[in-house]
Amino acid sequence: MPQAGTFPNGPSRFHRGIVTMPQDHVDIRIPCGVNIFTPVPVSYPESAMPARSDSKRAKREALIEDGTLNPSPERVRDPKFRTGEFFDPDDVVQVRYEMLRRVSFDNTPVTAASDEYGVSRPTYYQAKENFDAAGVAGLVPKKPGPRGPHKIDDEVMEFLQAHVVPGEPIRARELVNLVRRELNVELHPRTIERALKKIAR
After folding, report:
1. Where in the sequence is the domain holding 177, given as residue range(s)?
2. pTM of the predicted model as reported, rounded to 2 decimal places
């Protein structure tokens, strides 16, 4: 009868409580008072693995349908919106909320916060007013279309002045698109030209 620790065709090898058969035997490991767990890789079919790109595409489509897609996500420079998955620069409500939070709780100046989140100062103040009046729901953009009469109020005028370079021609059509996108106000190019020429006198 073989002695303890030996096998008929050769001595066994002990390694950390595991008895290993000689090389001419089938590889068998016998635990000696030690539990042995061998991780086994498990593969899943591709259909069961979440597709991140599909999820992001679905969210973007939902934002478009709800009218909450940020028209200028590339202008958001807050690092949180560039790393990870929770903060989404495409979500205009989340972007505006975080912008307001930065000013209110982090004491970031309005000008710096507006620049960091890719909006104008008038847009910040409008978002602040909407949030104070209706909470997060106030940050949801209104339906496309004119907002009130086709006239230029103080907010719009400040916005236009901030985007006009002194001494250069007035690019009214570009300003029309900018005002529509940032302030949700519909103006005619001639209206913008007349207003800017009037204050330049």
Report:
1. 154-200
2. 0.49
